[in-house]
Amino acid sequence: MQDLGIQVLFRGNNFLRLLEGMWAALRIALIAMALSVLLGFLFGMLMTIHNRAIQCISRIYLETVRIMPQLVLLFLVYFGAAKHMGVNLSGEMASILVFTFWGTAEMGDLVRSALIAVPTHQYESGAALGMKKWQTYFYIVIPQSVRRLLPSAVSLLTRMIKTTSLVVLIGVVEVVKVGKQIIDASRYTNPKAALWVYGAIFLLYFAVCFPFSKLAAVLERKLAE
Amino acid sequence: MKKKLLSMLLVAGVLTGILTGCGLTETGSSKEEGTFATQNTAQARTIAEIKEEGKIRIGVFSDKNPFGYVDENGEVQGYDVYFAKRLAKDLLGSEDAVEFVYVEAANRVEYLQAGKVDVILANFTVTEERSEKVDFALPYMKVALGVVSPDGAQITDVEQLKDKTLIVVKGTTAETYFEKNYPEVKLLKFDEYQEAYDALLDGRGDAFSTDNTEVLAWAIIHDGYTVGITSLGELETIAPAVQKGNTELRDWINEEIIVLAEEQFFHQNFEETLKPVYGEDVDPDSLVVEGGVVE
């Protein structure tokens, strides 16, 4: 009974395991986010094209992603693909796919609104200077929209990091799962471990997400100059 | 243009998924799922294939002490794990020839159907409904349901639960038992055991029900909580499960269980893994099943 709850964090490899779990979660979110930014830019530009068919399809894609809970998507890709198509993905691979599928839609919508927020005369000025379409985008429009995009993109990233706690259901051992394992393993010796373990997990999430918001704020200021 | 094609494909994929994926909610729609299951199951590995790879994949719990849990050094331990290692030793010659896959109560069936594990040894209670989706081997343990509640408001009879909130874990026997037999009991469901216990400790429910082994062990170390109902529902058995139709592997496990009875393997297992938790008070014969024979 003299055993303080906090000791559970430092017994054996427990703390290292928590860090590994955090890294597993972060890795999924970062890779998915990198892919989402790339694909999201393309998707966002596509959505600004005035074409009925394209707009309709993008709309369906976007709404599907928003309506479907991520958990359902995870199950579909991890178990569904193995059952129906014989595609046996690892849990991490499936998570990255689903998060990218989700992130691309969200990112695309953000890019779209950032692009249409750039005044038409900017596009016209580019054309007047004899720039090709891609040059107008690359040198004029995209640099202006990036600044508008940053805050919401970072909030998407932190949302992604937090949503990784779902991937445990397809067998990826991430930080929350490691925490539960530690709590469970010590539940006969240290029933009060939960508070400390969850506290540590909270701090880990904070330590990961806070620098990203800070970085975004700094970049935003820099780009504004 | 490529992007358009891709998103079309993705949307189409998701839509077909919606049609077939409903089964993963696990509670209702099992009839529909049953008809799909037989034709839409990934092929399980044969024993020859397992031997070729040199590793058997076994699904175990990683947070259900003392049956399957991860110790402070990151090693998986427990009654189910002890048996899993023995299976690996007798099939492949080494008790390290096993790849442990950590499963949750709610996705055990999915893991087998998707061919992602060869065997599930995750405290899997044999039920009729589950037998339609997976094939069980001979049992190696037996349990009934137990109900644990705070001493101040002891629940000693099921009738007392009327209009009260009972905590259960999704996908467990307790969930189906109460839904079927006591629909007037309000159920508060969680995905994981840890969350369920936390809810009980926080007073979000009046009692918690799951296998009696589980609640007995828990009540021992939690002052102020007692298992008021120690045996509820039918006596049920816990058995290894393989994919539906994988008779080759099931038969091998059955033979193994029968052979192991000669050395009273599961009593040894009890001594090693369960006794340290339950103490002297629990009679091994009330939990352990040798040779698949339930008295």
How would you characterize this protein structure?
- The complex is a heterodimer of chains A (225) and B (295).
- With 225 residues, chain A is mostly helical.
- In chain A, 79% of the residues lie in helices and 0% in strands.
- Chain A is elongated and about 75 Å long.
- The mean pLDDT of chain A is 88.
- Chain B has a 5-stranded mixed beta sheet, with helices on both faces.
- The longest helix of chain B is centred in the N-terminal third of the chain and has 20 residues.
- Chain B has 2 domains: 137 residues, D-Maltodextrin-Binding Protein, domain 2; 94 residues, 3-Layer(aba) Sandwich (D-Maltodextrin-Binding Protein, domain 2), CATH 3.40.190.10.
- Chain B is globular and about 55 Å long.
Short structural description:
The complex is a heterodimer of chains A (225) and B (295). Chain A is mainly alpha-helical and 225 residues long.
- Principal-axis shape of chain A: elongated
Distance between the termini of chain A: 59 Å
Q: Return the CATH topology of chain A.
A: MetI-like fold
CATH class of chain A: Mainly Alpha
> What proportion of the residues of chain A form beta strands (DSSP E)?
under 5%
Helix content bin of chain A: over 70%
The CATH class of the largest domain in chain B: Alpha Beta
Record keyword descriptors for this entry.
heterodimer, A: about 220 residues, mainly alpha, MetI-like fold, about 80% helix, B: about 300 residues, alpha/beta, D-Maltodextrin-Binding Protein, domain 2, 2 domains, five-stranded mixed sheet, three-stranded parallel sheet, 11 helices, 13 strands
